């Protein structure tokens, strides 16, 4: 007779020790966040704070070890992610996965494909990180120094340098690490003879960093001698006091050698800019001249190579708020109006129906320029529609999101969605690829919905949107609530939800002025209102 008393109960199985430790860790953190600190003496409070920071570093090291195990088991591939970095970003919620991966390779023990254990690239630094005597900022500063050691340096010298830098990291701040590391690098290569052309080529880079709260962005880079020579020559002839001054309508533009000497001298007298500001304005004037002359070409991914800007009609009328360019840059409305006075913009307004052909069915596979402009005008149309992607409109293609072209999809604007080349190639039926569709109803109507395909038998991943929060609208909502709490509820006619992007959208194409004699034109605000009332 079969034994019917045995029952498999997973709930009675002992939990792995790692699971128990993490649960205990969170319980301790819950208590540590609320524990009364008043009984601590001053010295004890300092010790507690110092030990907590050390524990944070040690926890990060333990997390790196777990990420290494995740990679060894190919969990990113099993859950549908193409890369470990993508998995770290979306599933583990790691803030900067690229930097974290660099730390991991330098300080964690990894597992090779054949099962062999691969020791950390910098074992001394890894030991200090595991003990908590250095934090993530110390590790980053140390790796930045070690990465600048020329390849031609002997291996034993590199090992000694790694130990020296780990010793420095344990006793100094990240800023001190950078400064002392520069002295060590100068000692290793005092004459600069070990840094050859290939070394300089390897280190070249140029970054336009993310915009700050005031709309400005920092430009950082390491220039090759060739590019440095060209930039310095540009600044030598364009960055002169009085030249290319945006605050002076009578300032000469271009090279100082082509300027009228008397006009230049008078403009220089009025010029109160710093040398750094003069350099900035010279580069801006050069790029403006390049765009006006059409040297960048006529088309890029179906969009004209010009400043293409999206703005809200209400913001234009009240001369406040922010516009968005096709490259994803935020532009204050007053700056847009000032630019529009110089370069003769035109506005295309789409209401209910449009004269521009936007529906082609099976008659055309590639989206037209008009479709790309309308796509840019849609909510979040300034970026790729894939969740978490911030590639701007100038870098995207129009993806047949509702149904692939090869399977009978239509080249209609309400079936298309912006997708960068990488995500567009990742759409398909296999695990690790994406399935997409267009939402046909609700508040997300017209948006592209993405689902990452998991392996057969695995739980399906949720559908996701690349929803960018409407910060001005949300702020206005909170401000209205605060005012209602203070002054009482008031009716606001502008509180109703905005219309679907398929109903009303605004596209501004800022074009260079047409050649010919100047003609009188109204003020920028009057020009905008006239354009808004006109039909294209």
Structure description:
The protein is α+β, with helices and mostly antiparallel strands. Among the domains are: 16-197, no CATH class; 208-296, no CATH class; 369-452, DNA Binding (I), subunit A (Orthogonal Bundle), CATH 1.10.30. It has helices at residues 17-34, 42-72, 75-78, 84-90, 97-107, 123-131, 136-147, 155-171, 174-188, 197-203, 225-238, 261-270, 275-293, 313-318, 333-343, 369-377, 421-425, 471-487, 524-533; strands spanning 110-111, 117-118, 205-208, 219-222, 299-300, 303-304, 307-310, 322-325, 330-332, 346-351, 397-400, 416-419, 434-438, 448-452, 504-510. Helix 7 runs antiparallel to helix 8, helix 7 packs parallel to helix 9 and helix 8 packs antiparallel against helix 9 (174-188). The longest helix is centred in the first third of the chain and has 31 residues, at 42-72. The termini are far apart. Mean pLDDT is 75; it is low at 1-8, 299-305, 343-357, 493-526 and 532-536. One of its GO terms (molecular function) is endonuclease activity.
Query: Which class best fits the helix and strand makeup?
Result: alpha+beta
* Beta-strand percent range: 5-15%
Mean of all residue-level pLDDT scores: 75
Q: Indicate the percent of residues in helices.
A: 40-55%
The geometry reads as globular
What's the number of extended β-strand segments? 15
Counting DSSP H or I runs of 4 or more residues, the number of helices is: 19
Strand order, sheet with most strands: 9-8-7-15-10
Largest sheet: 5 strands, antiparallel
Low-pLDDT residue intervals, each spanning 5 or more residues: 1-8, 299-305, 343-357, 493-526, 532-536
> Kindly, what is the distance between the CA atoms of the first and last residues, rounded to a whole number of angstroms?
87 Å
| Rg, alpha carbons | 29 Å
Keywords: Endonuclease, Hydrolase, Nuclease
Domain HNH nuclease: 370-425
GO molecular function: endonuclease activity
Pfam family, one: DUF222
């Amino acid at each position: 007779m079969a034994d019917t008393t045995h029952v498999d109960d997973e709930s009675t199985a002992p939990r792995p020790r790692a699971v128990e430790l993490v649960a205990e860790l969170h319980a301790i953190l819950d208590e540590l966040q609320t524990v009364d600190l008043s009984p601590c003496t001053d010295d004890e409070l300092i010790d507690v704070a110092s030990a907590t920071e050390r524990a944070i570093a040690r926890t990060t090291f333990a997390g790196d070890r777990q990420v290494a195990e995740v990679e060894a088991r190919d969990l990113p591939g099993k859950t549908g992610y193409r890369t470990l970095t993508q998995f770290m970003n979306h599933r583990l919620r790691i803030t900067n996965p690229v930097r974290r991966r660099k730390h991991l390779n330098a300080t964690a023990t990894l597992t090779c494909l054949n099962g062999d254990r691969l020791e950390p690239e910098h074992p001394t630094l890894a030991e200090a990180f595991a003990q908590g005597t250095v934090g993530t900022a110390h590790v980053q500063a140390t790796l930045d120094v070690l990465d600048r050691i020329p390849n031609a340096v002997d291996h034993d010298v590199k090992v000694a340098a790694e130990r020296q830098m780990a010793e420095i990291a344990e006793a100094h701040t990240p800023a001190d690490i950078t400064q002392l590391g520069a002295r060590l690098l100068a000692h290793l290569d005092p004459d600069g003879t070990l840094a050859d052309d290939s070394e300089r080529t390897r280190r070249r880079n140029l970054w336009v960093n993310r915009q700050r709260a005031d709309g400005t962005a920092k430009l950082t880079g390491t220039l090759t001698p060739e590019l440095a020579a060209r930039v310095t020559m540009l600044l030598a002839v364009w960055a002169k006091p009085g030249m290319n001054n945006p605050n002076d309508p009578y300032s000469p533009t271009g090279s100082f050698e082509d300027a009228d000497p008397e006009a230049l001298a008078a403009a220089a007298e009025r010029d109160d800019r710093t040398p750094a500001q003069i350099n900035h304005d010279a580069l801006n004037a050069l790029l403006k001249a390049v765009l006006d002359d059409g040297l960048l070409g006529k088309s890029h991914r179906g969009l004209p190579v010009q400043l293409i800007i999206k703005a809200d009609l209400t913001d234009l009328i009240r001369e406040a708020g922010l516009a968005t360019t096709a490259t994803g840059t935020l532009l204050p409305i007053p700056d847009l109006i000032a630019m529009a006075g110089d370069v003769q913009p035109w506005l295309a307004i789409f209401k209910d129906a449009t004269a521009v052909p936007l529906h082609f069915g099976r008659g055309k596979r590639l989206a037209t320029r008009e479709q790309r402009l309308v796509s840019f005008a849609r909510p979040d149309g300034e970026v790729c529609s894939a969740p978490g992607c911030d590639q701007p409109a100038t870098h995207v293609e129009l993806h047949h999101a509702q149904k692939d072209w090869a399977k009978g999809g239509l080249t209609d604007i309400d079936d298309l969605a912006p997708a960068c080349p990488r995500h567009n190639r990742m759409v398909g039926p296999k695990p690790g690829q994406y399935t997409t569709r267009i939402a046909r109803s609700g508040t997300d109507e017209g948006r592209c919905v993405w689902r990452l395909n998991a392996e057969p038998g695995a739980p399906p991943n949720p559908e996701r949107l690349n929803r960018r929060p409407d910060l001005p609208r949300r702020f206005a909502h909170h401000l209205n609530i605060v005012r209602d709490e203070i002054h009482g509820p008031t009716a606001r006619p502008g509180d109703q939800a905005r219309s679907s992007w398929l109903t009303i959208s605004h596209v501004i194409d800022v074009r260079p002025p047409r050649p010919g004699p100047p003609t009188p034109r109204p003020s920028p605000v009057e020009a905008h209102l006239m354009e808004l009332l006109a039909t294209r």
